[in-house]
Amino acid sequence: MLDRFIRYIREKKLLDVNQPYLLAISGGLDSTVLAHLLHASGFVFSMAHCNFGLRGEESEEDEVFVRELARQLGLIVHVKRFDTLSFKNARGISTQMAARELRYQWFGELMDQEGFSGLLLAHHADDQLETVFLNMLRGTGIEGFYGMPDSRGYMIRPLLPFYRRELQEFALKKNYSWREDSSNDSIDYKRNFLRHEVMPSLDEFDPAAPDNLLYSFGRIKDTGRAFFYLFDTWLESNVEKEGDYRYLKGDSLLKASGQKTLLYYWLRTYGFNFSQTSAMVQSLKVGESGKTFFSGDFSVNLDREHLILGPRDSDQQAEVWLDETAIEFKADHMHYGILTLQGDIQPDRSSLNAMLDREKLRFPLQIRNWKSGDRFRPLGM
Fold first, then answer.
1. Considering the domain boundaries, does residue 211 fall inside one?
2. Would residue 235 count as lying in a domain?
3. CA-CA distance, 239 to 265, in Å (whole number)?
4. CA within 13 Å, CB half, 367
5. Cα dist. 303→247, 250, 296 in Å?
6. CB-based contacts of 175: which residues, under 8 Å, 6+ apart?
7. 304 is in which domain, residue-wise?
8. Can you name the residues that pair with 367 across neighbouring β-strands?
9. Residues 140 and 249 in one domain
10. Fewest CB within 10 A of the end CB: N or C in the chain?
11. For 58-113, what is each residue's pLDDT tens digit?
């Protein structure tokens, strides 16, 4: 496995033996094996461990394990303890999101302070498959099939070609020890459900399924690259610029294949989502001239011949369309976050927040100002 590891790094030019790196290590199988592989390969690196304090004594034992591993390998280890629950409550976000924000903020600070050339992450092939499946469950476009890149910016993932079973076999063969996170045994989280229920069933159905899926996703990724190459040419040929406004001929869009997708990839950088571009295409087809769609700062007006994109006037009413995958939106120059809550939830009486029964929502969900005839019944009335 060590030879494959070194060969992959060389082929992808992921690491430089003359540069220092920072390894994010939890003490689990994946990051522990990566630490040993990096050490055996002669790379210069330090380790960073986050103690989120979420699992009581287990969290403390994880920290002790990582410190001892650093001592054995003769490495510097940076450890930071977080008050994760306080941060979560202050931000009004999930525990997972809070832990993610805290660790990446700290990693970034360490990178700047110590001059590391990259942050090494221990994601592997199973994580890659789970990521793509999660994207599919959320409702994804072609980029959702890309999965995680082996490197992007300062983040580097040297274990992406390896499956977890390979890491475990290697660790057992070398008599390495590691820590097991008890939260990974729960199927309450979607990723863990995929890990413990879906992926084993696929493997049992066809042992070649994981390899075939990764191969298919790789082909889709290459198809996506071809699409964006051709899309840029289409955009340049069909969109005219005039000051702050952009004009797209309605006929040229309707004559093209994949109209909703073409329109979405043009307008997404202006804050429009796929549900809105689908509605625009439908309005074009039925000839709804004069209809206007809004994002936070822009509007698209359908006149007789063109879709006209321009800055939204300050007196234009906000109108935003949200699909089921939305996690935030902007309206009237304000940013709003979307959080899904489950279980025994007490009503939030703050005037700054809105709580809605998701089972009664119909998507795409339109967010707009009040209109004559609208009615609602507040809680308790």
1. no
2. no
3. 13
4. 23
5. 10, 9, 21
6. none
7. 243-343+352-368
8. 320
9. no
10. C
11. 999 999 999 999 999 999 999 999 999 888 888 888 888 889 999 999 999 999 99
